[in-house]
Amino acid sequence: MFDILDKYKEQGHFFLTPEQDLQTVCNAPAGKSGVYVIYALKKGRVELIYIGHSGKIEKDGSISNRKEGISGLKDEIIKGQQFGKTPAHIAWKKQMTRENIEALNIYWYVTCDTGYTDCPEVLKRSLLRQHQDIFGVFPKWNKSV
User: Fold this and answer.
1) Which of 69, 74, 133, 138 could, after both became Cys, cross-link 142 (CB 3.0–4.6 A)?
2) DSSP assignment of 127-140, as one string?
3) Domain of life here (predicted)?
């Protein structure tokens, strides 16, 4: 669905089940900016449920991937706040249990490297709008742009 993400050379994905530790299975790079897309696997179906990012454009035009306690994709995926002020490594497990999700398939893309300097925040908004154009709504774990 998001062909624009294919251009990024540094990318990967991993699975998370409710029994696993996110900090152990996450293979996203630390200290690098980008976006991540989460798919839920439930009863043989796959649904895109969240689009996230780490990094933003600073006033001087540079891209920063640092905010308090977060220093890149890996930290954002593990420590980023979800469903209020709960770190993702706790919130996702609880939400997976609530929604009877068997596993999450988490894809990540480094959007700022030697080949590209695409702002993750802008790219996330573009992906959310594309999802909304196709399905009429944002992914269910995203509140808004």
Assistant:
1) 138
2) HHHHHHHHHSS--T
3) Bacteria
In DSSP notation, 90-120 reads HHHHHHHHHTT--EEEEEEEE-BSSS-B--H
Q: Which residues pair with 67 in a beta bridge?
A: 70
pTM: 0.91
Percent of the chain residues past pLDDT 70, beyond the cut: 91
What token pair was written down for 128?
């959310």
3-state secondary structure of 19: coil
Helix (H) or strand (E) run with residue 63 in it: strand 63-64
- Phi, psi at residue 53, to the nearest 5°? -150, 165
How far is residue 89's CA from residue 7's CA, in Å, rounded to a whole number?
29
Closest C-alpha to 66, from 140, 136, 138, 120: 120
> By C-alpha distance, which of 54, 21, 23 is closest to 37?
54
Whether the predicted pLDDT of 69 surpasses 60: no
